[in-house]
Amino acid sequence: MSLVSASGLQVALGGRVVLEDISLHVDAGEIVTLLGPNGSGKTTLLRALLGAVHATDGTVERKTDLVVGYVPQRLAIDPTLPLTVARFLDLPERADRARKGAVVARVGIEGLERRAMTELSGGQFQRALLARALLSEPHLLMLDEPTQGLDQAGEAAFYELIDEVRHETGCGVLMVSHDLHVVMRASDRVICLNRRICCEGAPAQVASMPAYHALFGRGTEGALALYPHRHHGVREGAA
Fold it and tell me: What is the spatial distance between Cα 49 and Cα 5, in angstroms, rounded to a whole number?
């Protein structure tokens, strides 16, 4: 059974349909990336799969006792709040010290535990968010544009870390990304979304699809075609 799957999913917000006829799945050990223009419903889809948004039609199924680690697109912290990395990792409840130390070392922020969250660089901040998500030992990681605000080198390093975590833990990963030039290094499957699924498959295959070019233009073809991937099947539909 997949970790999470949707069939015929539809979501309306404020009386407007923002997602329709969405069918997808994420399995253990794979990285699936959602691509789409602003307003295409990517974040709403993550929230619907989490159960935070009510579906107006269709179904969402989650593996029994599924544990999800979520890294949001952004997290605003009051700069006057004395919240250190160590305290942040203990929210909402104190984490096991040995487990916390192992996770901090794994994501590369060892030695920053006493640093205020607001004093971290963009990359360090995102790694702290990832550490908090990993403390729950998730079966599924959901990442909503986790590299927003990082430079290309920072993005590549973060995605490499996600790939290593996936291989080490066997967790599945579903993430939203905006960077076509890095996503091919981090994904087993790509799903192009614009209210409905336009196309999906291995990155190099999706890059040749008309629906992909309709969303991103032909000049981006090389961005997804440079990196080899296992083929998990391809689907293309009307936008």
Answer: 8
pTM, two decimals, is 0.88
Q: Which of 15, 1, 31 is nearest to 167 (CA)?
A: 31
Rounded CA gap, 166 and 153, in Å? 20
How far apart, in Å, are the Cα atoms of 76 and each of 49, 86, 117, 198?
23, 17, 10, 33
The pLDDT tens digits of the residues spanning 77-128 come to: 888 888 999 999 999 889 899 999 999 999 999 999 999 999 999 899 999 9
Sign, CA torsion 147/148/153/154: negative
In sign, the C-alpha dihedral spanning 132, 190, 176, 109 is positive
The per-type count for the chain, helices as H runs and strands as E runs, is 9, 10
